[in-house]
């Protein structure tokens, strides 16, 4: 087969596959999130930029190799509206779950219980879900000060704080 043919037709095939991805949200990394902005709260600042409002970068381990080489933030994978979805990294797709307060703290019909503030902190820093299962290694493990972590989970729990259990 002539190389030109393969190029043209594989290109088409790829485009068709991508377009037929229907309603999956396709978000190319590092293009949609404005990391230079100042966000209204420290929790939001961390979610969108990976830095706190004093400008310190939040450190993480793990995540996909691409995430290890680039500074990344929650919103890059979990979405601007915390809606989750499929994200395209060079050479592979990952699916990040939604982080809306309903998704985190509402009743779950999937494999784990609703989060509490403390189990949410553990998921972010240690990659463990409320059932004690390890999250996939594509979710980085984050290291930040206790007060930054408080601000981040408060932001994620916004609107539901009254109903979220404050145990431990
Ligand atoms: C490189 C992409 C990426 C980044 C950046 C990222 N995550 Fe994730 N996250 C994931 C993936 C993928 C999963 C799903 C892991 C699994 O299925 O086990 C996940 C899972 C989670 C979960 C568990 C949700 C559930 O339903 O159990 C929480 C909570 C979470 N991430 C919070 C965060 C927060 C907060 C940040 C920023 C500090 C962040 N993530 C940054 C990819 C990412």
Automatic annotation (TrEMBL):
Top-level taxon in the UniProt lineage: Bacteria
Alphabetic keyword roster: Heme, Iron, Metal-binding
GO molecular function, one term: metal ion binding
Gene3D superfamilies referenced in this protein's UniProt entry, alphabetically: Cytochrome c-like domain (1.10.760.10)
A Pfam family the protein falls into: Cytochrom_C
Entry protein name: Cytochrome c domain-containing protein
Keyword Ion transport tagged: no
Organism: Photobacterium ganghwense
InterPro entries, A to Z: Cyt_c-like_dom (IPR009056), Cyt_c-like_dom_sf (IPR036909)
Cytochrome c domain ranges (all copies): 50-160
């Amino acid at each position: 087969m002539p190389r030109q043919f393969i190029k043209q037709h594989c290109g088409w095939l790829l485009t068709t596959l991508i377009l037929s991805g229907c309603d999956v949200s396709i978000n190319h990394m590092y293009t949609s999130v404005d990391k230079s902005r100042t966000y209204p709260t420290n929790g939001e600042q961390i979610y969108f930029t990976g830095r706190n409002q004093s400008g310190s970068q939040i450190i993480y381990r793990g995540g996909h190799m691409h995430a290890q080489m680039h500074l990344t933030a929650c919103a890059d994978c979990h979405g601007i509206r915390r809606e989750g979805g499929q994200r395209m990294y060079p050479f592979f797709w990952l699916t990040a779950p939604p982080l809306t307060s309903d998704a985190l703290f509402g009743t779950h019909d999937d494999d784990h219980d609703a989060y509490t503030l403390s189990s949410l902190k553990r998921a972010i820093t240690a990659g463990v879900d409320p059932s004690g299962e390890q999250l996939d290694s594509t979710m980085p493990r984050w290291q930040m000060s206790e007060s930054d972590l408080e601000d981040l989970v408060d932001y994620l729990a916004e609107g539901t704080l009254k109903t979220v259990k404050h145990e431990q």
